[in-house]
Amino acid sequence: MNLLFATSNPAKYTAMRDALQPLGIRLLCLRDMEQVPVAPEDGSTPLENARRKALFYYDHYGIPLFSCDSGLYLENLPQELQPGLNVRSPQGVYLDDQAMLDYYGGLAAHYGDITARYRNAICLVLDREHICESMDESLASRRFLLTAKPHEVRRPGFPLDSISKRLDTGEYYYDLNAHDADDLVGYEGFVEFFRESLSK
Question: To bridge 139 with a disulfide, which of 4, 120, 153, 178 should be the other Cys (CB 3.0-4.6 Å)?
């Protein structure tokens, strides 16, 4: 089955492509499409944003697709420092990869290692009559640490992975084996979502 993943982030596309490969799903992304408009992302939750993006791109392209959205939540930090949906623009200014490392690494330098978690949502649109969506706990990442000192490995599109550590062992995300890394991110939840949604 072919599906469009409504993202232009190559790192997110590659990670999801690899996770869904065992299900026989072949992914396209927005970089494969022509005339890519900018979708609205003005929802108040990750699920609202995922739904708005998915319906917007379905109406534009008319092919089966899905969209994901995430919010980042930091424990024991003041409300004004919670990025939530604005992971790339926590203070209202868009941050590139390096600026994200500087900003979140700076928070960790000030407050000490920060316990964090992503809440993830997905909306799958096969057609206007068949829409599946979820923001279930199974899609959320495990709790992890954001630290001040970045790992030497950098991956474009996923800058915070360089300052992410496993909560229980303190190991950097990039020093984990593939299975443990995927377990922290929560890809098994996405795979199960597609397995259930496409079997209906």
Answer: 120
pLDDT of res. 173: 93
CA-based radius of gyration for the chain: 17
Q: Which residue has the tokens 């409300």?
A: 79
Comparing C-alpha atoms, which of 120, 175, 119 is closest to residue 147?
175
**Number of alpha carbons in the 13 Å side-chain half-sphere of residue 94:** 1
CA proximity to 163, closest of 117, 105, 98:
105
Long-range contacts of the stretch 73-78 (C-beta < 8 A, 24+): 73/116, 73/117, 73/118, 73/119, 74/107, 74/114, 74/115, 74/116, 74/146, 75/114, 75/115, 75/116, 75/117, 75/143, 76/111, 76/114, 76/115, 77/107, 77/111, 77/114
- Mean pLDDT, contiguous 10-residue spans, the chain (200 residues): 93 91 94 92 94 97 96 95 94 94 97 96 97 96 96 92 95 87 79 93
Residue found under tokens 């939750």: 45
Q: What are the DSSP calls for 37-53, one per residue?
A: PPPP---SSHHHHHHHH
DSSP H/E element including 132: strand 130-134
Amino acid occupying residue 44? S
pTM, two decimals, is 0.86
